[in-house]
Amino acid sequence: MSAATMAAAAPPPAAAAGPRLLEIAGLKVHFRTDDGWVRAVDGVDIGVDRGETLCVVGESGCGKTVTAMTILKLIAMPPGKIVAGSILWQGRDLVPLGPDQMRAIRAKEIGFVFQEPMTSLNPVYTVGEQIAEAVRQHEGLSRRAARDRAAEMLRLVNIPNPQRRVDDYPHQFSGGMRQRVMIAMALSCNPKLLIADEPTTALDVTIQAQILDLMQEMKERLGMAVLLITHAMGVVAETAQRVVVMYAGQVVEEAPVEALFGRPMHPYTQGLIRSIPRLDLAATEHRRLEAIPGTVPSLLNPPAGCRFAARCRHAIPACSAAPPPLREVTPGHLAACIRAEEIS
Amino acid sequence: MTQYLLRRVLIAIPSLLGISVILFTVLALAPGDPFEELATNPAIPPEVRQNLRASLGLDDPIYLRYFAWLGSMLQGDWGYSFISRIPVDDLILQRLPTTVAVIGASQVLALCIALPVGVMAATRPYSLFDQVANTLAFVGFSLPTFFTGLLLILLFSIHLDWLPFVYSTKIDATGLAWWWAQLKQSIMPIAVLGLFQGAAWTRFVRSAVLDVVRLDHVTTARAKGLPESRVTLRHVVRNAMIPVVTLVALQMPAVFGGAIVTEQIFRVPGIGSLLITSILSNDTPVIMAVTFVFAALVIFFNLVADILYGWLDPRISYR
Ligand SMILES: Nc1ncnc2c1ncn2[C@@H]1O[C@H](COP(=O)(O)OP(=O)(O)OP(=O)(O)O)[C@@H](O)[C@H]1O
Ligand code: SF4
Ligand SMILES: [Mg+2]
């Protein structure tokens, strides 16, 4: 593996040079259920540039996982269906691609790390076999060379004794170690983008920090872009360069991380930031965590206007008239709120 | 793995002993006496009868008789049939190959149906194929073998006169003709048993595969860019085999039960029909030996299942 050469060829900041690495536009993914169509993702625009870390945040059920899985067409279709939109990967639309063409992109171009390290590995094969499988598929390596690559990947993600551990089964690893194995597997074919769907949610707090550090380290060494999904604003503050906030299947705000925390524009983002536990404040003022009141609207039949209106302290009648468009309020800072200027 | 195997084999021994104790006790307590005929025969004086009984050890306490039986059986002496006076082991060895061939072939047929159909149905849930397969499996599983057996005999032996309905061990032909006759007489018993088991196992395989397809590691396998056929074979079917092996092993007693019935219907001179005739004639040594062989076969298949299980699921053998 040419980690060193890859780091040397660190990608330039995404300027006008060519198409973006990933550009999702107007994506709608709906699920057919007995009660009707669930609009899990309902008009999402997300762009990722080479070498950057983009965080996607939002409450449980807002469509983060569906969005991420749709990029690699990993959602079950049916019941799922891509109703509208495009997913441009380096300028090429993935939506119309057939299964064979999608397979060439999975793992090779875009790696994926899932939320549950305990169940994401197949219990009946050694971790080495599972990593080698991806390498053999995409690079046609021999069995022995693929095994060596697997051990090399385990060493890269700081698993002690990689030459021995490569022949161990998943149940012989702890949760944190399994997530390292998952990361090793996702990176084994040198993807240009790593999608990590809440990679630390299922882990202990101390292990969470280690896994995030590892991802950061990998990103710097291998020079790929990272799309990190999380619902923890603390994680966002520590890792992201840019942030996309999702609510009820839509993007409500997008900004560089300093701008988002410095001047959150959407009332939902403001609520999320207020709900971050602050150890310093909690200790002195006994201030309680401020949760956002109310519940997420049904995705079966979402409200016509702003989907956050029922929970918004700034709501006015105009909010419910039409869906507020996602617009650039200040350069590089987008929000889907008609009152963004006044309330931020 | 060796340790796991050893432990499994060691557990099988007390199970066999326990089964033999229970069998022996039940048979010893069962009503019916092989000397009934002698007792009603006025030509034989009671003293002679008494001496005969004593020489055969029939009046000893049960536990003494059990140990005597166990001792001689372990030395390879399985006793003589009360009726035909032929050594029991010879009788069994005469009959066993036929049974093993018929049951074996029918189980292979069952697996050849259940595996592909179950996997295909589960990977296309609620498709036309799935619905047809499901319905046929349900019908096949609901029809008892004695019914389908008689139906086949009626159709192919009596109505069409294509196949013989009595299985014969003495086919006077050689070479190809012998194989042809053998095939013609085995095809109905094999089909009846095989289709019945195949229907039952199709349902097992389908539900086991359905349980695995929605697991996270299958999505991981897809995310690696593997072809769908490889995902299905290596990451779905392979894992689904773990519960299927257990269920199949647990089914073995039922399979033998079904085999006995089928042997009766088609007059297959196997070990099942040997058991039935020996029960009807109170031939205790034969009953004891045949039931014991059945029990040993069941335990043997459980052992095979355990071994397969340890091989299929690495989490087991390390415990
Ligand atoms: N197969 C499916 N059938 C029906 N609805 C689905 C299906 N998959 C997802 N959904 C719906 O899509 C919505 C978005 O789900 P998604 O998993 O993307 O949320 P999320 O943002 O990842 O949440 P979490 O933080 O809990 O992971 C949910 O309301 C969910 O009920
Ligand atoms: S559009 Fe209106 S209801 Fe929606 S977030 Fe802005 S102020 Fe609140
Ligand atoms: Mg999720």
From TrEMBL, chain B:
Q: Which PROSITE patterns match?
A: ABC_TM1 (PS50928)
Record InterPro entries: BPD_transp_1_N, MetI-like, MetI-like_sf
Stretches assigned to the ABC transmembrane type-1 domain: 96-305
Q: What is its main location?
A: membrane
What parts of the sequence cross the membrane? 9-30, 100-123, 135-158, 178-196, 240-266, 286-312
Keywords assigned by UniProt, alphabetized = Cell membrane, Membrane, Transmembrane, Transmembrane helix, Transport
Q: Name one Pfam family in it.
A: BPD_transp_1_N
Membrane protein topology class: Multi-pass membrane protein
Q: Where in the cell is it found?
A: Cell membrane
Similarity-based family = Belongs to the binding-protein-dependent transport system permease family.
Check the record and name the PANTHER family matching this protein. DIPEPTIDE TRANSPORT SYSTEM PERMEASE PROTEIN DPPB-RELATED
Name of the protein this chain belongs to: ABC transporter substrate-binding protein
Could you read off the lineage of the organism from its UniProt record? Bacteria, Pseudomonadati, Pseudomonadota, Alphaproteobacteria, Acetobacterales
